[in-house]
Design brief:
The chain contains 26 helices and 18 strands. With about 575 residues, it is α+β, with helices and mostly antiparallel strands. The strands form 5 sheets. The protein has an 8-stranded mixed beta sheet. Strands 1-2-3 form a 3-stranded mixed beta sheet. Strand 4, helix 4 and strand 5 form a beta-alpha-beta unit.
Length: about 575
C-alpha cells in the first residue's frame, strides 16, 4: 500500500524500453530476396539498410510475394529515418514520431542502429486539431453548400449512432480554399445504407457498388437550391493487393486503416462530422506539413507498385494543384517502372487516367511537366522513349486543344492526347501502347493510321500555293478527326491554318438544296442525286453559288448537261 507523503521514483523507459532490438543489417544493394533470407535467419522484424534507412520484414515479404525479389532492398526501404538514442525520453520519442513522415524511428548507439521503434506498434495516438473555424466562412465558390452538406451528414450519422468523416480531396481542397470537385464521405459502418439515408435529404439519386461497399449520390441540392458536387460514400476499409496493379481485396475497418490505404499524404486527411466533434482533423503523420509545402508524398515506397495508376494521379494533382512530387515519390516512380509490366493492371484503367487528364483544364501541363519528365509512359511499353520531337508534339498539341475547345469543332480530347504522345514513336511502339491501353478494333486502326499517315497528309495539305477550298476539301473530307489532329501536329504553319479552316468552316458547308429538292427539279433518283449534290457543295465551297436561286440555276444546267451525256 502506498504511504502518504512518501516519494516514489518515476520510471522513464526511454527509447531503450520502447524499441524492438531485433534489427539486422544489410547492404543497400542487396536484393530483396537475399535480405529477406537474412531477416528470417536472424528473426529480425527490421533491417538497417546502410547508415540511415530502415525496412520492415513485412515489407520485404510483400515485395517478394509480388515477384520483386531481385530489386535492391534500398528500393523498398524508408530512407532518412530519424534517429534517437537509447536514452531519449519517451515523450521526445512520441513527438518525433508525430512529426515524422516515416512510420518508425531508428535507435542508435554511436553510429550503429541497434533498434527500431514502430509507431503503429507503439499505439501512437496523434493529437487532433479542430479546423472548424476555417470552414465557417469558406472563400471558395460553392463552399457554403459544401459546408451545409457536411453538417447535414454529421447530424444524420449521429441519429443513426455511427461515425462519418469527410476524407481526401474535399478536405484538402477546403483547407486550400478551393471548390471541391466532389465530396468523399467515409462511414465507420454501412456506407451504402448511409448513402441511401442521405440521398432523400438532398434530393439526389443513389448508385450502389456493393462489391466495394461504396455508393455515389448525384444531382443533390442544398437547402437553398445550390447544386451539390457528386458525393461518394464508402465504408471505412483496409485493402490488400494480391498482385501489383490488381484491384484490391477490401475489408471493413476503422478510419485509421482507411487513411493508411490512400495514395498520398495530402489525401489522407479526414474531418470529423458528428456535431460534437465537427471540424476535428484526423490525418497521417506529416500530412499537414506536406499540404502547407504543396508536396505530394506517397504513403510508402511500394505505393506505385501496388497501384501504378497512382503515378498518373500524381501527375494530375501536380498539374492541377501546383504540387510537386517529393523525393520519396520520385524514387517510388522509378521502382514502379522497374517492376513493370503489370499483368493484373487492366488497360481500361490506364486509358481512364488519360481520359481524366484530357478533361482536366491543366491536363497539358500534367503531360508536359510530369508524365514525360518521369518517363511514366514506359508503363505502356518498355520501348517508349521521350525525345525532343515527342516533347514538341505535346507542347504544340496544347495549342490545338485550346483552339479546338474555343472553336467547338468536336475533337475528342483523349484521342488528341494519345496522338500527341504516340506521334513520335515507332509504329511497333504505337501498336503495343494502344493494345496495352485496351484500345482495339476500329479505334486502334484509326489512331495507328492517324500517326502513320500524319506527315504525308500534312504535306498534301500544304502542297498547293493557293488551293481552292474545294481542293482542300477533296484532300480532307472523310478523314478521321484524329488523323486531322495528327496532321496538324506534324505540319507547319500553312498546313495547320488550312486544317483549322476545314474543321471550323469547310466541313460544315452544305448546299441549301437537299436530295428531295433535286428530285423535284427533275434529277433522277439514285447516284445522279449524289453526284449533283457533291458538285453543288464544291461550288458553294468555292463561292460559285451563294444563294438558293444560284443553286437552282446550277442544278437546271447540270441536269441539262447530264441529259446530253456530259459528265458535268
Amino acid at each position: 500500500m502506498a504511504r502518504r507523503g512518501a516519494a516514489y521514483p518515476q520510471v522513464e523507459p526511454g527509447a531503450a524500453g520502447l524499441m524492438d532490438s531485433r534489427v539486422a543489417a544489410c547492404a543497400p544493394r542487396a536484393s530483396v530476396a537475399r535480405t529477406l533470407a537474412v531477416a528470417r535467419r536472424a528473426d529480425a522484424r527490421w533491417l538497417a539498410v546502410g547508415p540511415s534507412a530502415l525496412v520492415s520484414t513485412a515489407a520485404l515479404e510483400r515485395a517478394a510475394g509480388w515477384g520483386l525479389g531481385r530489386l535492391p532492398v534500398a528500393a523498398v526501404a524508408w530512407r532518412d529515418v530519424p534517429a534517437v538514442t537509447e536514452r531519449t525520453p519517451e515523450v521526445a520519442v512520441r513527438r518525433r514520431l508525430a512529426e515524422s513522415a516515416v512510420p518508425a524511428l531508428r535507435v542508435r548507439r554511436g553510429r550503429r542502429t541497434v533498434g527500431a521503434i514502430d509507431g503503429a506498434a507503439l499505439g501512437m495516438a496523434r493529437p487532433s486539431l479542430s479546423v472548424a473555424h476555417r470552414l465557417e466562412h469558406p472563400a471558395s465558390p460553392g463552399g457554403e453548400a459544401c459546408l451545409w452538406l457536411l453538417r447535414l451528414a454529421g447530424k444524420l450519422a449521429e441519429t443513426d449512432g455511427i461515425a462519418v468523416y469527410a476524407v481526401g480531396g474535399v478536405v484538402r481542397d477546403l483547407l486550400l480554399d478551393r471548390s471541391p470537385l466532389d465530396v468523399d464521405l467515409v462511414v465507420e459502418g454501412d456506407g451504402i445504407a448511409f448513402a441511401r439515408r442521405l440521398a432523400p435529404e438532398i434530393g439526389g439519386h443513389v448508385r450502389a457498388h456493393a462489391g466495394f461497399g461504396t455508393a455515389s449520390i448525384a444531382d443533390g441540392r442544398s437547402a437553398d437550391g445550390t447544386a451539390l458536387p457528386r458525393i461518394d460514400v464508402a465504408t471505412a476499409r483496409r485493402e490488400r493487393y494480391a498482385a501489383p496493379g490488381a484491384l484490391p481485396e477490401v475489408h471493413a475497418a476503422r478510419l485509421a486503416d482507411d487513411l493508411a490505404r490512400r495514395d498520398f499524404s495530402v489525401n489522407a486527411l479526414a474531418l470529423a462530422l458528428l456535431p460534437g466533434s465537427f471540424g476535428r482533423l484526423v490525418d497521417v503523420p506529416g500530412a499537414q506539413r506536406d499540404l502547407a509545402r504543396r508536396r505530394l508524398r506517397p504513403l510508402h515506397p511500394l505505393s506505385f507498385v501496388e497501384d501504378p495508376t497512382r503515378i498518373f494521379r500524381a501527375a494530375r494533382y501536380a498539374g492541377r494543384l501546383g504540387f510537386r512530387l517529393d523525393a520519396t515519390g520520385r524514387r517510388a516512380v522509378a521502382v514502379a517502372l522497374a517492376a513493370a509490366p503489370y499483368p493484373a493492371l487492366s488497360g481500361h484503367r490506364l486509358l481512364a487516367e488519360i481520359a481524366l487528364i484530357a478533361a482536366d483544364p491543366h491536363g497539358w501541363r500534367t503531360v508536359c511537366a510530369h508524365l514525360l519528365a518521369w518517363d511514366a509512359l514506359r508503363l505502356w511499353d518498355r520501348r517508349f522513349r521521350v525525345g525532343a520531337a515527342g516533347r514538341a508534339h505535346v507542347a504544340t498539341a496544347r495549342r490545338l486543344d485550346v483552339w479546338a475547345r474555343r472553336a467547338e469543332v468536336g475533337l475528342d480530347g483523349t484521342d488528341v492526347v494519345l496522338v500527341a504522345l504516340l506521334l513520335a514513336q515507332p509504329m511497333s511502339v504505337v501498336r503495343a501502347s494502344l493494345a496495352r491501353l485496351a484500345v482495339t478494333g476500329e479505334r486502334a486502326t484509326r489512331l495507328a493510321g492517324a500517326t502513320a499517315g500524319a506527315r504525308a497528309l500534312a504535306r498534301r495539305v500544304a502542297r498547293a500555293a493557293r488551293p481552292r477550298p474545294s481542293q482542300l476539301d477533296g484532300v480532307l473530307a472523310g478523314r478521321d478527326p484524329a488523323a486531322l489532329a495528327a496532321a496538324w501536329l506534324a505540319g507547319g504553319r500553312v498546313a495547320r491554318r488550312r486544317i483549322e479552316w476545314y474543321l471550323d468552316r469547310g466541313r460544315g458547308v452544305r448546299p441549301l438544296l437537299g436530295g428531295e429538292d433535286l428530285v423535284r427539279m427533275g434529277v433522277p433518283r439514285g447516284p445522279a442525286v449524289g453526284r449533283c449534290l457533291a458538285e453543288l457543295r464544291r461550288r458553294r465551297l468555292d463561292g460559285a453559288v451563294s444563294s438558293l436561286a444560284s443553286e437552282q440555276d446550277f442544278v437546271n444546267r447540270w441536269r441539262e448537261r447530264a441529259g446530253k451525256g456530259e459528265s458535268r
